[in-house]
Amino acid sequence: MNGAHHRPLTEMAVGDSNSCAWVSGDAGREYRSANGYIGLAEMGGCHDFAAQGIRVGLGVGSSFSNLKLANNGNSRIQGQYGIAEVDWQIPNKPLVASLLGVYGQWDGNLRRGYAIAGT
Fold first, then answer.
1. Whose CA is closest to 21, among 57, 50, 60?
2. What mean pLDDT comes out for the span 23-33?
3. Whole-number Å distance between alpha carbons of 12 and 98
4. CA 76 to chain centre
5. What are phi and psi of 3, to 5 degrees?
6. pLDDT of 99
7. Sign of the CA dihedral 24, 29, 32, 35?
8. Which of 36, 76, 105, 113 has the fewest CB atoms lying closer than 10 Å?
9. From CA 73, how far away is CA 110, in angstroms rounded?
10. 42 CB burial (10 A radius; 0-12, 13-18, 19+)
11. First-to-final CA distance of the chain
12. How far, rounded to the nearest angstrom, does the alpha carbon of residue 46 sit from its chain's CA centroid?
């Protein structure tokens, strides 16, 4: 998974309110086993339930990849998703329990290419 979900929502600063929001974008270029681009755009919001030490966040996003494969093959994938996260700051400990769920639908188109050796 690309994007901002390598860190829990509890690491986002909230300031004086109990709410927060995020906008995330991620773009990359593949050179090794394929040649092409991947990307993601996402936004969401969260709320703190301070008495319980819990932060809940919901977001939506879209991702894509367009890769040229060996032997004139290609792979195109594009879709949208929803994401939910619940974090709990464990009392009196520097630990966070985090649960992350993603649901989405992607459309894919794959064309494989084959190298045929002469006999």
1. 57
2. 84
3. 14
4. 17
5. 110, -160
6. 93
7. positive
8. 105
9. 8
10. buried
11. 43
12. 16
> How far is it, in rounded angstroms, from Cα 27 to Cα 116?
34
Cα–Cα distance, 51 to 54 (Å, whole number): 8
Output the pLDDT for position 6. 66
Q: Give a three-class secondary structure readout of the chain.
A: CCCCCCCCHHHCCCCCCCEEEEEEEEEEEECCCCEEEEEEEEEEEEEEEHHHCEEEEEEEEEEEEEEEEHHHEEEEEEEEEEEEEEEEECCCCCCEEEEEEEEEEEEEEEECCCCCCCC
> Are residues 32 and 8 in contact, defined by beta-carbon separation less than 8 angstroms?
no
Residue position matching structure tokens 């990307």:
39
Rounded Cα–Cα distance for residues 47 and 45 (Å): 7
pTM above 0.85, yes or no: no
